[in-house]
Amino acid sequence: MAIAPLTLALSKGRIFDETLPLLAAAGIGVPENPESSRKLILPTDSGDLRIIIVRASDVPTYVQYGAADFGIAGKDVLYEHEAQHPGGLYQPIDLNIARCRLCVAAPEGFDYQGAVHQGSRLRIATKYTRAAREHFAAKGVHVDLIKLYGSMELAPLVGLADAIVDLISSGGTIRANHLVEVEEIRQISSRLIVNQAALKMQGARLQPILDAFERASAQMA
Ligand code: ATP
Ligand code: MG
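Above: the input record for the complex with adenosine-5'-triphosphate. Below: its predicted structure, written as tokens.
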């Protein structure tokens, strides 16, 4: 009887692209690219592993419920997921890929520090409501959080918010929209996440891949 291949959940784009070298370090090649093939289930040249392509914020859900044995997700996504599902995922390795920073950004002319000192109530647009809520609570700043699902940079430009909490890497996108970074909340990279039952039942098959990922990512740190 053929055993089912292990399933790795990835999002397309930077996480898929930056995972390819880790898979190569484990001796696994991926013949197709999700951008061009449009397939949501991608075979690998190891008969024992297949890749499923899901939204970045859905990766923890697929792994938590066991539809994928393991996956790769940003700490930004994991932090928001944990608010609903505390402790459900084993997160053994920081892979040091897809590195960026979670920041507060505001329009060039907005006196953010002044508003904070005066105790003004701020309207903050973000996809990262848990991280934002905890950040401003720790500073003692009162905020109204406005949940968005993308294009956060637009919100201050059209009067929806005073500032945003978003991911920044080069800063090109916020600069192009006349925003400036006013505060860093935390450094972000992606972690390997593993389904708890899969680790118990498939540990012997998973472990060589996890070890190869760990060695390869240590070299990227
Ligand atoms: P979706 O496109 O499904 O709305 P997304 O925009 O979060 O989700 P990606 O842009 O592929 O999807 O981001 C995936 C992960 O990569 C994020 O969760 C974050 O950890 C990291 N990331 C996001 N933006 C950057 C960036 N500019 N530079 C480096 N890493 C980033
Ligand atoms: Mg994005």
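Notes for the reader.
The CA atoms of residues 65 and 219 lie 31 Å apart.
Residues 6-98+189-220 form a domain with the D-Maltodextrin-Binding Protein; domain 2 fold (CATH 3.40.190.10).
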